[in-house]
Amino acid sequence: MQTFEFCLLICLIAVMPSVHNAEKPKVKISSGEKPVYVGDTVTVECSHESDRSDSTGWRYWWYRNGGHPSQGQKTEKVTVDQPGSITYQCGVKNDHYTSPYSDHVTLTVLELPSQPILRVLPSTSVWKGDTVTLRCLSKSGLTGTKVTYTFQKGQKSEIKKTPQNEHKINLAKQNHTGSYWCEVEEGKKKDKKKSDEVQLTVKGK
């Protein structure tokens, strides 16, 4: 090999990104609520150092509890449906490189208490025009028993009575600010259980 060609090859190698020395991906689990109960939704994200330089062409693989991998997105929203510990790992690959697996990250999910829990999503503080979801988590709703959910604002204002455990507020306004709670009624038992109140604040833009 001539001297010029050899120098050119060395220079090209020097400037090429060293994907083979890349760090393992990292799993990040985030939830607006702590602790996490059955019925909550969490976000799992697979971050990789190549995201900072080249975000195209990467495919993401997720491993749950050490099971078979499934292809997914960089960020996934997961609604947990049973109590216990769930471990997540991820890997990334493109046409030229496959990463090692990330380290395990464990999510602990608690059994729901007997009292319902009201979740206000995405947050208890939102901007005018945002969509707000009121979600009533109930142990009764997991048993297959017919359940009726009542969503209320304050002490006297009933918003909705429904067999669904969610109620959406579209295009939130500042007069939606207030304390909200939900009540669960089980089928023929007529046994009513009420959540604690949760304060929602709608800020003006």
Strand content: over 45%
First-last Cα distance: 67 Å
- Tally the helices: what do you get? 1
Q: How many structural domains does the protein architecture include?
A: 2
Can you tell me the CATH architecture of the largest domain? Sandwich
CATH class of the largest domain: Mainly Beta
Helix content: under 10%
Q: How would a textbook summarize the main sheet?
A: 6 strands, mixed
How many beta-strand segments? Answer: 17
Q: What's the average pLDDT?
A: 84
CATH homologous superfamily (4th level) name of the largest domain: Immunoglobulins
Give the class from helix and strand content and strand pairing.
Answer: mainly beta
CATH topology of the largest domain: Immunoglobulin-like
